[in-house]
Structures are given as structure tokens and as C-alpha cells.
Amino acid sequence: MRSKLLLPVALIAMMLISCKQEEDANLAENDTTEIFPKGEKITNSNFVGDAWVQMLITADSINRNSVGNVTFAPGARTNWHSHPNGQIILALEGTGYYQEKGSKKRILRKGDVVKCPANLPHWHGAGPDSEFVQLAITSRVSGPTEWLEAVTDEQYRSDHTKD
Amino acid sequence: MRSKLLLPVALIAMMLISCKQEEDANLAENDTTEIFPKGEKITNSNFVGDAWVQMLITADSINRNSVGNVTFAPGARTNWHSHPNGQIILALEGTGYYQEKGSKKRILRKGDVVKCPANLPHWHGAGPDSEFVQLAITSRVSGPTEWLEAVTDEQYRSDHTKD
């Protein structure tokens, strides 16, 4: 009788393994929704923590926009900065923070859109527990980004707006 | 002996069903990677087939860029058109086509980036078998889009570049 049970038991074991493998493959495939390459690690002093940028579009004299795909490690953020034509931020993945000078910080999630006004100091980055991936669309019509001081831990941890 | 086999066989059947259900759930969850809303169906005559647009950013006098999330049904496409400052297209999902006047059409897939030169007539849309979702970033610094004739079926079906 034992031998009669061997085949079905072996089949069950095989199926369990195959089911698990398929699940793992699905997880690996859908582990990230990354659309654009992560690019190079940012090494300048305008960021705190680990961040990466892949420039997708460089501004030229006729189409004066740059587009970059920026990935922030948990806790990483830009310094305060401003743009003479403002900036557009499109949140693609993870949970991020965005704050304008004089306002509470906002939580950004996949699909959120920010239009930052011209010359208004602001910063953006990842939340403490999640990577954050965003597109930054920056008009260079009236000049380059002005970089300011670092975001303190107190500012980083400050209250956020209700959303 | 038959009754001894009943339990293992029932177990196998149950596991097959459970495995399939999990797979279906995964598929449903990952059926779409949609980041931005599909928006409103486009009803003007500058498109052939079904297309939807969700405007994410409207140009203003200081940040003169518009950003739209455009979804094309299979076979749908824009008419030929040009932009005085060119256009940036970021492919988010599905398989699309992009063609500039005088060049072969290109296949666009998730993560592909196009910088269309100023005043060069071009069109974009979905391939015949797939929806296509793209961001269109359009500088309005030097004026609005110039709309031209429709893309014929022959043009739509023409050869594409190797990629």
C-alpha cells in the first residue's frame, strides 16, 4: 500500500515546488515597476543620502527642458533649491516627500504630480522607509537651478499635510 | 486501494486550483502598470482611432510646458503634426509607433525616450496589437502645435527601423 501512495505524494511535492517557483518568478518580475534606468549615483554635495540620476533629455537652445529620472534611497533628499522657471515632478514609484519653503511637507506617491513655482525654495526626496523614483522636468529658459542649504533632520521629520 | 488514492488525488486537485487562483490574482494585480489616470477620450479630429488624454500640467507664462498622459487603443494614432519647440515623448506602457517625416517609423516600448526636433512633422500612436501609454512634454515657448493631415493606413503599416 505504501508504494501505491508514493506516486501521488511525489506528484504533490513536485506541484508544490513548481507552484512556489512560479510565484517567485512573478515576484521577481514585478518586484519593481522601474521604467527608466536608475543611472549614476549622484556624488555632488546638493543631496543628502544616496540618490541616482538618469538624464533622459538634455536641454538645448530650442527645447530648453531637461528631464531626469531620479531615485532616492530611503531618507535621501535634495538640498533646498529653486528654479527660475519652476519644476515639474512626477512621482513614479515608492513614497516621497516634497516641501516648499513656508509650507508643510507633502507625501508623494506613484502618480502624484507637483508643479513647483518659479524661484520658490523647495526640496524633495524619499520617505524614511521607501525608495522614491520621480521624473524631474526642468525648464532652463531663464537659467540654472539655484542650490541652497541642506535639509536638516528636523525639517525632514517635520509634520506633513493631510492627504 | 482505490479509497486510499482518493485523498492524495483530491489534494492534488485542490492544489492545482489554488495555484491557478494565485496566478490569476497576480495577473489581475499586474495587468496594468498604469501610473497616471487615463483621462478623457479625445474627440477632436487630430487623432485616428480611440485615444485618451489626462493633462498633468498646463503651460503658464513662466513654466511654458504642458505634460499630458496619452493612451492610444491598438491602431490609434495622432495625425501628422509639429511643434515649434519640438516634443519629448516618454513611453510608459505597451508598444507604440513613432515616425518623423522622411524617416522610417520606430517601435516604442516602456522606457523609450524620444526628443522630436522643432517643426519636424511626426506622428505617434499604438501598435496594431497593443495599447500604448506615453507622456508628452511639450514646450509652448514659441507657440502651439501645428496639426497636419491624417496618417494613412499605408503609412501606419510601413516598415520600421530595426531595434
From TrEMBL, chains A, B:
The keyword Signal applies. Keywords: Dioxygenase, Oxidoreductase, Signal. It comes from the Bacteria. PROSITE patterns: PROKAR_LIPOPROTEIN (PS51257). Gene3D superfamilies: Jelly Rolls. GO terms for molecular function: dioxygenase activity. The keyword Ribonucleoprotein does not apply. Residues 70-126 form the Cupin type-2 domain. Residues 1-20 form the signal peptide. It comes from Zeaxanthinibacter enoshimensis. This is Quercetin dioxygenase-like cupin family protein. Transmembrane segments: none annotated.
